[in-house]
UniProtKB/TrEMBL annotation:
PROSITE patterns: PFKB_KINASES_1, PFKB_KINASES_2
Catalytic activity, as annotated: beta-D-fructose 1-phosphate + ATP = beta-D-fructose 1,6-bisphosphate + ADP + H(+)
Keywords: ATP-binding, Kinase, Nucleotide-binding, Transferase
Function: Catalyzes the ATP-dependent phosphorylation of fructose-l-phosphate to fructose-l,6-bisphosphate.
The keyword Kinase belongs to this UniProt entry's keyword annotation: yes
Enzyme Commission number, as recorded: 2.7.1.56
Gene3D superfamilies listed in its UniProt record: 3.40.1190.20
A GO CC term assigned to this protein in UniProt: cytosol
Official protein name in the record: 1-phosphofructokinase
Length: 321
């Protein structure tokens, strides 16, 4: 895309996703696979690819190993994503995705990633600080590699919000915990239910507890909390509303990147000024559409519109199972 990027995605720990299709595979046994493919991945890379498919001018940055950067460069070129990744010595990690089509589930094996030098991290921070005013939204995505402290996202959220940018955060573990404990929260927080439980250090066993946890984050400064719950759907909470979006049934090719597609949908809905119900429909349609494809790709708009029309959106006060 030739237009100035409106969105920047940040992926400090990208991965080459090796997706292996093995129906009925058994742990500890010799298994036959039906096929495999390798895609440039990582949460922010996926978000950028999905936004580009929707027609949003987008740039992507992060830390990318020089030794195997070619698949990422190819993806960015094909999608029209502006490549602002910082190149570092070594090879970007490989993430193994074992897909069982018979069960419709995916098992992830993620390596830790390259150890980041202070120089490389400073280069990435300089890239973030030099973004033009036209970049109105920044998505901080995925895990942090070795060498990057757990408070990195929390610090960047405060700085980016101070610049007047809309900040979305999709991470897990200690990085999410630190960001949710910080004084300044992102405007958009999108954990799945398990990530939210881990970050808060407690189980959320009822819908009322999930809703209360989301509302607490809203009180502390977030503007939209979206808690994804797999096939069941997602809870979306603002200061004014709480909705639950239930996706339509689709034929699953791979669930890899479904949450990233939801983040992309929520960001595009923000850019377009959609209502919460409209955002819920778009984000759920993006997520449902993405799992009908291998890799981070959206279906055609007509198909997405049809999916959005099938999304069931209900008030959550509290939700019912």
């Amino acid at each position: 895309m030739s237009a100035t990027p409106r969105v920047l995605t940040v992926t400090p720990n990208p991965a080459l996703d090796l997706t292996v299709h093995a129906g009925g595979w058994q742990r500890g046994a010799v298994n036959a696979a039906q096929g495999a493919q390798q895609d440039a991945g990582g949460k922010g890379v996926n978000v950028a690819a999905i936004l580009a498919d929707w027609g949003v001018p987008v740039a992507a940055t992060g830390l990318l190993g020089r030794d195997n950067a070619a698949p990422f460069e190819t993806l960015f070129r094909e999608k029209g994503v502006t490549d602002e990744f910082v190149r570092v010595p070594g090879a970007t990690r490989v993430g193994l995705k074992l897909v069982d089509p018979t069960l419709g589930d995916t098992t992830d094996l993620n390596l830790p990633g390259l150890t980041v030098s202070a120089r490389a991290l400073a280069h990435l921070q300089a890239t973030l600080r030099s973004q033009p005013a036209g970049v109105g939204a920044v998505a901080l995505c995925g895990s942090l590699p070795p060498g990057v402290h757990a408070g990195f996202y929390a610090e960047e959220v405060a700085r980016l919000r101070g610049q007047g940018r809309f900040v979305a955060l999709d991470t897990s573990g200690e990085a999410l915990r630190a960001a949710l404990q910080a004084e300044v929260l992102p405007q958009l927080v999108k954990p799945n239910i398990h990530e939210l439980e881990a970050a808060l250090g407690r189980s959320l066993t009822t819908d009322a507890e999930v809703l209360a946890a989301a509302r607490d984050l809203i009180r502390r400064g977030a503007e939209l909390v979206a808690v994804s719950q797999g096939e069941r759907g997602a809870l979306l909470v603002t200061a004014q509303e709480a909705l639950f979006a239930r996706p339509p049934r689709v034929t699953v090719q791979s669930t890899v990147g479904a949450g990233d597609a939801m983040v992309a949908g929520l960001i595009s809905a923000h850019l377009d000024g959609l209502s919460l119900a409209g955002a819920a429909r778009r984000a759920t349609a993006f997520s449902a559409g993405s799992i009908t494809r291998l890799g981070a790709h959206l279906p055609p708009r007509a198909e997405l519109d049809a999916l959005a029309a099938q999304v069931q959106v209900d008030a959550a006060q509290p939700l019912t199972h």
